[in-house]
Please model this.
Amino acid sequence: MSPTDARPYRALAATRFRALLQYRGAALGGLFTQTFFGLVRIMILAAFYRASAVVPPLPFEAAVAYVWLGQAVFLLFPWTVDPDIRMLVRSGNVAYELCRPLDLHTLWLVRTIAMRTAPVLLRLVPMMIIAFAVLPAVGLGEWRMPAPASAAAGALWLASFAGAVLLSSAMTVVIYAGLLWTVGGEGVPVLVGTLAVLAGGLIIPLPLFPDWAQPVLIALPFAGLLDLPARIYTGVLAPSGAAAALGHQLVWTGVLIVLGRWLLARQLHRIVVQGG
Amino acid sequence: MLDAFRLYLRYAAISIRGQLQYRASFALQTVGHLVTTAIEFLGIWALFERFGSLAGWRLGEVALFYGIADVTFAFSDSLSRGLDNFGATVKAGDFDRILLRPRSTILQLLGEELTLKRVGRLTQGAVVLIWASRAADIDWSIGKAALLAASIAGGVCLFIGLNVLQATSAFWTTETLEIWNAFTFGGNYASQYPLPIYRPWFRRFFTFVVPLACINYLPGIAILGRPDPLGVPIVAGWLAPLAGALFLGISLAIWRFGVRHYLSTGS
Model:
């Protein structure tokens, strides 16, 4: 078995994924909270839109879709780290990871992809059902999730969602390198997580930020987490422009993987495993 | 009563001393917390930048509601960490130990941890409040300052009450359910904005069931000296913070009921 053999990584990801699918009760409680937050966010935006004297760069219906997509995929955001990996770094057991005949970056990346995908799928599908079907049934039809702008937009959104999972996972492994540096401290994850929440469009949709901030926000990797997929879904970004958005995600994923590998290699070079 | 209070101070002092052992980590966490809450306000600012106003409300006025909500939540969150972890306490059977001691159960749980992490949120909320009083031209008087203090105190009571209810539910479910986050975190989030922007059913819920409006919006408009667009008389704002204490009282009664129904997990 060589470190380039794909099977162990695949098996690891599958096991991790199945383990995380066990937390169905927690997902149900979380779903209620997510719906509640979504409704509050939409009511706030609706109040801003109602009395607005200007024409906002994002139609209200698209803003509603943006909010629900955000509620559905917020677990995807790199603002949490795998508690097991944090413990490995704290306890020094990270040394065991180094003993495995596997590449550490790839190992952590596949673990993270599983960690990001399982809870998102547990919440994405039911959240979409609530936003599509349950809201109209309880008299909140005006805030329901609109359908994708077109069939092509829907398909491209799915592709960009997959891109967002990869991007977020690559970003998370960079955070792990930061954990090695601060021995499991909270500084790096909090900083990156906060940036991601703000510049990723979870606080307010990115198009609603001031115009002068737009070029920066769009260029940053965080836009690929929620903003670009939401723009594709709502048709704010036409299908012809989707290729550029997917390219943005892939290029940033590549850059972050290279950065993560370099940082990990550097950290491991000077790592001192404590313990007895 | 006085004895109980002294005991709590003792608990709190121990908890604080413990946390100050890790000074660098404490400083980082505080700064981290400050940054994570500051971006919420950045979002509100950006929306005002884009839309100009919020249904007739100015940013300075919204900042007052935001500041009250933030300071209140910072206090209540750092006080009630022990209640937050109650699911784990029940699961491990540790509640049996608490029951054995001849002291108030709630007091012991509150005394488990007084986290200082929330100093970051507190600082941020206080800065927003100070800014709001200039931006919204608040005409401060002793009465208004007292009302601000009362609404924060009432709010802390209300949120501790919510945490008590959340902990009580663990007697039956053994887990602390995430559903309660909708009322604690979600309620705090919703109360950052003026109440009239929400739907009637939503307003009624947060006035009469979980009386968040009574500890934020209603005293808030009394401080601003601005008539309520919905016609609630301004005197209501001066009395409303009492609802927080009432809510805590009811929650404690429900807690006592729950304790009588407690079955140890036996581990």
Observations:
- The longest helix of chain B spans residues 142-173.
- The two ends of chain B are 33 Å apart (CA to CA).
- Chain B has one domain: 2-260.
